[in-house]
Amino acid sequence: MRRTIALVDDDRNILTSVSMTLEAEGYSVRTYSDGEEAYRGISQKPVDLAILDIKMPRMDGMELLQNLRKTSRLPVIFLTSKDDEIDEVLGLRLGADDYIKKPFSQRLLIERIRALLRRADSLDDPRARKRDAMLVRGDLVLDPERHMCTWKSQGVQLTVTEFLLLRALAQYPGHVKSRDQLMDAAYGEKIYVDDRTIDSHIKRLRRKFRDIDGDFSEIETLYGVGYRYQDN
Amino acid sequence: MRRTIALVDDDRNILTSVSMTLEAEGYSVRTYSDGEEAYRGISQKPVDLAILDIKMPRMDGMELLQNLRKTSRLPVIFLTSKDDEIDEVLGLRLGADDYIKKPFSQRLLIERIRALLRRADSLDDPRARKRDAMLVRGDLVLDPERHMCTWKSQGVQLTVTEFLLLRALAQYPGHVKSRDQLMDAAYGEKIYVDDRTIDSHIKRLRRKFRDIDGDFSEIETLYGVGYRYQDN
DNA sequence: AGTGAGGGGACGCAATCGCGGCATTTCAGT
DNA sequence: ACTGAAATGCCGCGATTGCGTCCCCTCACT
Q1: What is the mean pLDDT of residues B98-114?
Q2: B144 CA vs C10 C1’ separation (Å)
Q3: What distance in Å separates the CA atoms of residue B189 and residue A49, rounded to the nearest whole number?
Q4: Which of A30-44, B32-46, B117-131 has the largest mean confidence?
Q5: pLDDT band with cut points at 50, 70 and 90 for residue A67
Q6: What is the extent of the structural domain holding A80?
Q7: Same domain for B60 and B135?
């Protein structure tokens, strides 16, 4: 099985050169240039290993790591630009599995990756599967792996945020989710967006479903509480 | 419920400008210009969140944080004047929840505050589990997680306040609850409303149940005392 | 019978929500 | 790099809903 690696760095040069090396080694690579983007990408479609730069715009490596670790045991390798030992130590304390100082040889990186994947294999987190498992709720089907959504066998084209929100709702049909909880699910705990923004996405979701099925009403509003995906 | 924020900085300009912003956002703000003063103030009357400058006379931010953390888990945001990364990292290690570099936009600060308060809320009380537990009393079922209420298998649509009141009553069937006690259960101990307001909610509750079951009489009035959910 | 508490209708205010619209950001294709 | 389209976040308005209070009448208790 072909392994997927997330590569997160704000330096475009590193992104391209490293990803070329990794791909030559037979890995498929997904690159992100900042932490927030990476968090969403990885949440949406999991990877087997992540390589993170410590310093990045919007959400730095440590923050990203903390967020990722809340839901998975994803193996992580840190990149440190300075030989700033505090960074390294802290990174490891936070749960990184390994770190590499820049500049580094591609050869070293490959070695570390292999070692880490081997170790991860033996543990093989069962929860990792759950994240990208297909979700079927009556007429609704969500396939995170393909980022596909169907309603009564018709495809519905959802954006990333919409997909994450709908999955959070449909995961526990009948359960109320507050806007804050939905925020956590779609953005991670450290990001705050306006309450109205959640409403906006719900609005867009409802519209997309209603466009193909005028009777769609599975997403309910509970006044003063939040939203709920109808139980059936 | 109005949240209180402690703002600690030795720069008067920051103190005034930031506190104006926060108050405009609906928080009540207490300002301190040095760590010692802040420590005494916060110890004496707790706050929901603290924003601390790292460098201050008498007792600096880190020291203050350590002292505060001895007794509470108060969420803390650090302000750092220099992009002195060691400061940041050390702050986090000591247990700060977040940090912001000066100069910062007011918008960013608000965003962080909200994110932090949101997280603090969910961790908050140990009663959280109990709060979400399903309550079954004969023909009555209350499921907070789904925000659903059923009477003899028929759904009853309740508002948040009604739900809280009914749960408070049904939790101990046969026990009388005074209006004050019910108030505490539904609003928290700090808010006081007219006695008759409770009556109004009870009235609405009774009506909703009577609409689907003319014989409903589980909510009893104890003249001059309070209300009681019938024991059975 | 008198007194005061409670039931219930009605009303106005406040909170909440849905939605259109706008500005900015992101991303893919040239 | 440039550009146009898509996505995203936010704002604000109007509409809806919930809430607190008032008032009047009834009923319970003395």
Answers
A1: 74
A2: 31
A3: 49
A4: B32-46
A5: confident
A6: 4-124
A7: no
Are B30 and B59 contained in the same domain?
yes
pLDDT of residue A217: 94
Which H, E and C letters describe A41-75, residue by residue? HHHHCCCCEEEEECCCCCCCHHHHHHHHHCCCCCC
Residue B4's identity, in one-letter code, is: T
The amino acid sitting at A56 is M
Whether residue A111 sits in one domain with residue A137: no
Q: Are residues A177 and A203 in the same domain?
A: yes
CATH of the domain at B133: 1.10.10.10
The answer to whether A193 CB is within 7 Å of strand D is yes
Report chain A residues whose CB lies below 8 A from the CB of B162. Answer: none
Q: Has residue A82 got a pLDDT over 50?
A: yes
Pairing mode of beta strands A76-80, A98-101:
parallel
User: Of the ranges A49-53, A122-126, A165-169, which one carries the lowest mean pLDDT score?
Assistant: A122-126
CB-CB: which of B89, B115, B146 is closest to A90?
Answer: B89
Domain end call among A106, A124, A142:
A124
Q: What pLDDT score does A52 carry?
A: 85
Q: How confident is the model at residue A206 (pLDDT cuts 50, 70, 90)?
A: very high
Task: Provide the shortest C-alpha distance from residue A222 to chain B (in Å).
Answer: 8
Q: List chain B residues with CB under 8 Å of A198.
A: none
Is A174's CB within 8 Å of B146's CB? yes
Residues paired with B149 in a beta bridge: B142, B156
Query: Is the pLDDT reported for residue B220 higher than 50?
Result: yes
| Dihedral angle of Cα A69, A73, A74, A78, to the nearest 10 degrees | 60
The whole-chain average pLDDT of chain A stands at 79
* Residue A33, CB, strand D, below 7 Å: no
**Nearest nt to the B163 alpha carbon by C1':** D18
Q: Does B131 touch chain A (CB under 8 A)?
A: no
Q: Which residues touch strand C (CB under 7 A)?
A: A 37, 179, 195-196, 199-200, 202-203, 206-207, 221-226; B 195-196, 199-200, 202-203, 206-207, 221-226
DSSP A231: P
Count of domains for chain B: 2
Q: Which amino acid is at B224?
A: G
B86, A90: Cβ pair inside 8 Å? no
| Distance (Å, whole) CA A109 – CA A21 | 10
What is the distance, to the nearest Å, from the Cα of residue A147 to the centroid of all Cα atoms in its chain? 12
Residue A199 has pLDDT above 70, yes or no: yes
**B137 & B110 share domain:** no
pLDDT at B210 over 90: yes
Do residues A31 and A115 share a domain? Answer: yes
For the residues A132-143, what does the mean pLDDT come to?
Answer: 87
